[in-house]
Automatic annotation (TrEMBL):
<feature type="domain" description="Major facilitator superfamily (MFS) profile">
    <location>
        <begin position="28"/>
        <end position="474"/>
    </location>
</feature>
<feature type="transmembrane region" description="Helical">
    <location>
        <begin position="26"/>
        <end position="51"/>
    </location>
</feature>
<feature type="transmembrane region" description="Helical">
    <location>
        <begin position="417"/>
        <end position="438"/>
    </location>
</feature>
<feature type="transmembrane region" description="Helical">
    <location>
        <begin position="243"/>
        <end position="261"/>
    </location>
</feature>
<feature type="transmembrane region" description="Helical">
    <location>
        <begin position="372"/>
        <end position="396"/>
    </location>
</feature>
<dbReference type="Pfam" id="PF07690">
    <property type="entry name" value="MFS_1"/>
</dbReference>
<feature type="transmembrane region" description="Helical">
    <location>
        <begin position="94"/>
        <end position="113"/>
    </location>
</feature>
<feature type="transmembrane region" description="Helical">
    <location>
        <begin position="119"/>
        <end position="143"/>
    </location>
</feature>
<feature type="transmembrane region" description="Helical">
    <location>
        <begin position="181"/>
        <end position="201"/>
    </location>
</feature>
<dbReference type="GO" id="GO:0005886">
    <property type="term" value="C:plasma membrane"/>
</dbReference>
<dbReference type="GO" id="GO:0022857">
    <property type="term" value="F:transmembrane transporter activity"/>
</dbReference>
<keyword id="KW-0813">Transport</keyword>
<feature type="transmembrane region" description="Helical">
    <location>
        <begin position="213"/>
        <end position="231"/>
    </location>
</feature>
<feature type="transmembrane region" description="Helical">
    <location>
        <begin position="348"/>
        <end position="366"/>
    </location>
</feature>
<dbReference type="InterPro" id="IPR011701">
    <property type="entry name" value="MFS"/>
</dbReference>
<feature type="transmembrane region" description="Helical">
    <location>
        <begin position="281"/>
        <end position="307"/>
    </location>
</feature>
<feature type="transmembrane region" description="Helical">
    <location>
        <begin position="152"/>
        <end position="175"/>
    </location>
</feature>
């Protein structure tokens, strides 16, 4: 019997009562969850220290933007690629490779003294973006059926939890220490997690056959570069600039070519036929919408409360306070993820998305007091936790086990595209509607309300998509069955 089988059905006495968790199963979920948390921290860790980075690295705003863009671009390619490699050669093996990239990239950033070195380090960190979909796939396979949903829900919630915890952590470091400490935290966390995974987490039996789709990987990489680069740089290049428009058009052409190529291959990077199943396609589109809303929460909360009171909405708070406003939402994501596991995935996604919409509705209406901002962000966080935890279940019900890691990777890629759209659209809205204050142009309250209204609309769209997902979507070869 393999180690994965032993974990799913322990033979040694004493045998836990049916439905109860063994100590080893709990430890496995905690270790994998910590790995997911360490990686998810990187998505928001630098947001509060952007101004400090500009000064310390003697870099322009465009240069600092590349610190984020490099991670985004590499991650967009790494997520589906590592997912397919995980299906072919071992999910745990590729999870360890992704965590190795987190350690190496964070180490480069921790000792960096100039902008090119920082960008290079963050690009390496981008490879670790594959950690969460790999972790979800791993938990879904090695745990017994009665525990897999709860484990998956916890790991999925870590994507939002890390983003919410990263802001107050970065604010604390910015106030009392050097920004390099943020990267050392990631280095130490990764070093602690890797040996724990090697010791405690088994490698599940591989069921996928075939070879790596190199042409498809290169084509998808080019398509993602053409799509995400103008989304990240459109504000500085200009949205009507020929380069911006040309790259977006090229992205559409390359994605169409990618689909045609994948349909012809026996061992594709992405099984387009599986991805086109209504339960998978609609879940991925809903994931894009929720990813949009989550990232807009990150960019629309900390800066909001730090704005001067003279703006009519801000509170003149410190970076630390701005980050702490996200903390209750992060805790709610963690606490409510088990709720999602108790519901049917389709129902959980619908409910979670509607709660997100209610949170943004609160942000639009209640603006007078700091506690109202925290309330709105917390409600949105609660909905995000429930929605994120539901998505892998929908994917796994409609995906063969041999394609599981790749399918979860594609779902994560849709979330990343949603976040990129939020950054581009949110940045454009906040820059377009400003007020002049002490010689500076700051976003107006109307700009923030517009952003929150769009986020609420995206959440409602996610709920609508969830309602039309087929009720009975489990396939005969599904990785997870009812």
């Amino acid at each position: 019997m393999s180690r994965a089988a032993e974990l799913a059905a322990p033979a040694a006495a004493p045998v836990p009562a049916k439905g109860s968790w063994s100590g080893r199963q709990i430890a496995v979920v905690l270790v994998i969850g910590l790995a997911a948390l360490m990686v998810s921290l990187t998505q928001s860790l630098l947001i509060p220290v952007m101004s400090e980075l500009g000064v310390e690295l003697d870099a322009s705003a465009d240069g600092i933007a590349w610190i984020f863009t490099s991670t985004l671009l590499v991650g967009a390619v790494a997520v589906p690629t590592f997912g397919r490699l995980g299906d072919l050669y071992g999910t745990r093996k590729m999870l360890l490779v992704a965590l190795g990239a987190l350690i190496a990239g964070s180490l480069i950033c921790a000792v960096s003294t100039n902008l090119p070195m920082m960008i290079a380090g963050r690009a390496v960190v981008g490879l670790s973006a594959a950690t969460i979909p790999l972790a979800i796939s791993l938990v879904g396979v090695i745990l017994p059926r009665e525990h897999s949903r709860s484990g998956i829900a916890l790991i999925s919630a870590m994507l939002g939890v890390g983003g919410a915890l990263g802001l107050p952590l970065a604010g604390l470091v910015a106030q009392y220490a050097d920004y390099h400490v943020l990267f050392w935290i990631c280095v130490v966390g990764g070093i602690l997690v890797v040996p724990a995974i090697l010791r405690m987490v088994p490698e599940p039996e591989r069921t996928a056959k075939g070879t790596m789709d190199i042409p498809g990987t290169l084509l998808l990489a080019a398509a993602m570069l053409s799509l995400l680069l103008p989304l990240a740089q459109g504000e500085s290049w200009g949205w009507t600039d020929p380069l911006t428009v040309g790259l977006l058009v090229l992205a559409v052409v390359l994605l169409a070519a990618f689909v045609l190529l994948e349909l012809r291959l026996k061992s594709p990077l992405v099984d387009v036929r599986t991805s086109a199943r209504p339960s998978v396609l609609l879940t991925n589109l809903a994931s894009l919408c929720v990813g949009f809303a989550l990232f807009a929460t990150l960019i629309g909360t900390a800066s909001y409360v730090q704005a001067p009171a003279a703006t009519g909405y801000g509170f003149g708070s410190s970076i630390l306070v701005g980050g702490l406003c996200m903390l209750p939402g992060g805790l709610m994501m963690l606490l409510l993820s088990p709720v999602s596991a108790k519901l049917k995935p389709r129902t959980a996604l619908t409910v979670g998305a509607l709660i997100i919409a209610a949170g943004f509705g609160t942000r639009i209406v209640l603006t007078d007091h700091l506690w109202q901002v925290i309330l709105g962000a917390t409600i949105a966080g609660a909905g995000t936790g429930i929605a994120y935890a539901a998505m892998p279940g929908l994917i796994m019900h409609a995906t063969p086990r041999s394609e599981l890691a790749a399918a979860n990777g594609l779902n994560t890629l849709f979330r990343s595209v949603g976040s990129s759209l939020a950054s581009a659209i949110g940045g454009a809205i906040l820059a377009a509607q400003t007020i002049a204050l002490a010689g500076h142009a700051l976003p107006s309250l109307t700009a923030y309300r517009t952003l929150f209204a769009i986020c609420a609309g995206a959440a409602v769209l996610a709920a609508a998509l969830a309602t039309v997902i087929p009720r009975s979507s489990t396939t005969a070869d599904a990785a997870l069955t009812d």
